[in-house]
Amino acid sequence: MYESREHLQTLTEIRSLMERSSKFLSLSGLSGVSAGLIALAGAFVVSMRIQTDLFDAFLSNGAGDYHTDLSKQDIRQFLVTVGLVVLVLALLSGTYFTVRQARRQGQTVWNQSSQRLLRAMFVPLATGGIFCLALLQYNLIWLTFPVTLIFYGLALLNGSKYTLRDVESLAYCEIGLGLLSLFLPGYNLLTWAVGFGVLHIIYGLAMYYKYERTLTA
């Protein structure tokens, strides 16, 4: 009985070592929380602009023939600017917390596992980004909100096999919310804020209490 327990423990340790060598396990829950807060701030900025502009017709149904070409260009430029600022700040905060988490675990961030993760996520993210630029070009602004959720969810789903399996649950939530948003055009900004803001915060807190709290205690 004692030997069998020893063998079982040995197999468990071997399995853990193999998993650590093949998967990137240093994702920080705090990076999800910070990304969520930044996304909510970006959604708030857009919301304030909507309330003070003739912006909502584009976001609700893609119509707005009464708008001038200049206003359409201003809308596109404003959304792209806010989106880029949110993306850059989220990446910076995510990198900071992930690097800190990796150091606490005695791991390096840039390794074969993280490279496989980035490669798996790159194609869906790049495809979604180009698709969104095309939608903006054709003034289908309201569609960019659900599309970003859907392609982001697909990227998470594709990358989940190279990192914590909990990411898969977040991926399904993002995809589902994006698909729902397609049929609720008047609530695109709200669903976007829930997807990139609220879901990230909930996921990040769950990951923090599940994996990281013991390391910071």
TrEMBL record:
Residues that span the membrane, as ranges: 24-46, 78-97, 117-136, 190-209
Superkingdom of source: Bacteria
Could you list this entry's UniProt keywords, alphabetically sorted: Membrane, Transmembrane, Transmembrane helix
The name this protein carries in UniProt is Uncharacterized protein
**Species assigned in the record:** Spirosoma linguale (strain ATCC 33905 / DSM 74 / LMG 10896 / Claus 1)
* UniProt lineage: Bacteria, Pseudomonadati, Bacteroidota, Cytophagia, Cytophagales
